[in-house]
Amino acid sequence: MALAAIDRGFVSLGFSSHARSRLETYSLSESGEAAYITEIDRLKKKHQGRLSIRLGIERDRFSHAERAPFEYVIGSAHFLPCPDGSMLGVDTAKDIVTEGIRLHFAGDGLRFSRAYYALLGDYISGYRPDIIGHFDLISKNNQQGELFNPDCREYVKAATEAMDEAVTGCSLLEVNTGAMARHGAPFPYPSLPLLKYWKALGGEVILSSDCHSAEWIDFGYDRAEEQIRRAGYKKAAILGRQEELFDWFELT
Ligand SMILES: [Zn+2]
Predict the structure, then answer these.
(1) 19 and 65 Cβ atoms separated by less than 8 Å
(2) What's the CA-to-centroid distance between 135 and ligand 1, angstroms?
(3) 157 CA from centroid of ligand 1 (Å)
(4) Alpha-carbon distance values, 116 to 163, 178, 226 (Å)
(5) 58-250 belongs to which homologous superfamily?
(6) What is the mean pLDDT of residues 203-219?
(7) Alpha carbon of 81 to ligand 1 centroid (Å)
(8) Residue 148's closest CA among 184, 112, 177?
């Protein structure tokens, strides 16, 4: 990852593994977290002067990880609690999400969307992470409108109300190209209408590839940068090269 970043001309690079949670198939274990911190520290020293490496973490709503060891935290939601006590992974395969909506939300994708956004808005406003991760993650399995209509008033209301609440806890939102590389999505998170709404709220943005693989480290950045401009932004955050956690990149 670090070598790929240097090769593509990056000046800074953040790592954000999934923070510890009870679902260890998805997140770091206790020993895994220690090894992760040690490894990022090694890379920081190795590439000092060439690439500013930052130790971050992506912390799910249901993670129990401590904040202290990390330079920054991306707050995000990947799971919804269901009435039977189970957790529905919203970031998982489409057939699992579809079945979960059928079982737990009476087959109503809009109800599912409302539950997701209510959870996310509440988490971000209360936890106050440094960055908000993949805001409309649930759009990943809805590229043809299979689960809900993203243009309908009720969906937009749920998403924008979550933004109203989230911005009180964190003003920096990821424009995330992860689903473009890994799931063939045409556009980054969040959708352009939501990004415009975020701009109107006074929120700022940072570009992220959420790539899981070095070959995709800047995947979709041209299109994402275009989306950021179309939303009206003249600058975006990047991870800082010196003391400051963030620097600002002028969009020319
Ligand atoms: Zn995530």
Answers:
(1) yes
(2) 9
(3) 23
(4) 12, 19, 27
(5) Metal-dependent hydrolases (3.20.20.140)
(6) 95
(7) 17
(8) 112
Query: Tokens at residue 125, please?
Result: 């406003």
Using the mean position of ligand 1's atoms as its centre, give its distance from the Cα of residue 78 in Å: 7
Q: What is the pTM of this model?
A: 0.96
Please check the confidence at residue 111 and state whether its pLDDT lies above 80. Answer: yes
Can you list the alpha helix ranges (DSSP code H) found in the chain? 2-7, 30-46, 94-104, 109-127, 153-166, 178-183, 192-200, 221-230
Please identify which residue in the block is written with the tokens 């911190």.
Answer: 37
8 A C-beta contact, residue 140 and residue 177: no
Domain limits, the chain = 58-250
Residue 227 has which token pair? 């989306």
Return d(Cα 167, Cα 195) in angstroms, integer. Answer: 13
Cα 133 to ligand 1 centroid, rounded to whole Å: 6
pLDDT of 183 above 90? no
Q: How far is the CA of 181 from the centre of ligand 1 (A)?
A: 14
